[in-house]
Amino acid sequence: MRLRATKTDLTCSRQDWIYDAASHQRGTAWPQKLYADDLKPTDQTFHSHRDFGWNSREINYGLYFSDDSILNGVESELVVLGEVMAQDLAKMVGWHLRAKMRVELSVEGCEKVQWGVELFWTLLVSTGSAGSDAVQDNEQEV
To answer: pTM for the complete prediction?
Structure first.
C-alpha cells in the first residue's frame, strides 16, 4: 500500500480540553448508553489492568467519543464498529454491534457496515495492497 502525501491539517481539536467532573460524567454516561448490560463484563476485563480501564473511560469516552464537536457519538461508534470488524475482534464486534443498534443503526444497517468492511478487505487482499508495500518501503529505515 503506497501512502500518498495529502494536505496536512496542523490544528489540534482538543487543545482546550480540561479533565474535570463534566468530562468524567461524559466518560461514564456514554458507555452506559452504548453498552447497557454489556458494560459490566466489559469493565471486568479491565479489572487487572486498571490504567487501561481508566484511559478507556476518561480519555477514549470522556474526551473523544462523547465529544460531538467533530463527530457525534453515533458517527464515532460507526467508525469504531468498522475498525473492530476489520480487526476481526469477535467479542468487541458483538459489543459494538449491539451498541450501534442501541443508538441508531438497524440490523440491516449493521449488516451493510459488515458487508462494506468485508468488501474493502477482500479488495485489498485480492489486489495485494493490504500493507505489502509498507513493510518494504520502511525496511531500509530500520
So the answer is: 0.69
* 74-123 residue pLDDT tens: 888 888 888 888 888 888 888 888 888 888 888 898 888 888 888 888 88
User: CB count, 10 Å around CB of 27?
Assistant: 22
DSSP letter assigned to residue 106: -
Backbone angles phi, psi at 11, to 5 degrees: -75, 160
Please tell me the distance from the alpha carbon of residue 21 to that of residue 136, in angstroms, as a whole number: 47
Name the residue among 61, 1, 56, 4 with its Cα closest to residue 27: 61
Q: Are residues 60 and 95 in the same domain?
A: no
- Whether residue 5 is contained in a domain is answered as no
For the record, the C-alpha cell of 104 comes out as: 441508531
User: Could you list the residue range(s) of the whole structural domain that residue 40 is in?
Assistant: 20-67
Count the Cβ atoms, other than its own, within 10 Å of residue 93.
19
Residue 59 burial by Cβ neighbours in a 10 Å radius (0-12, 13-18, 19+)? middle
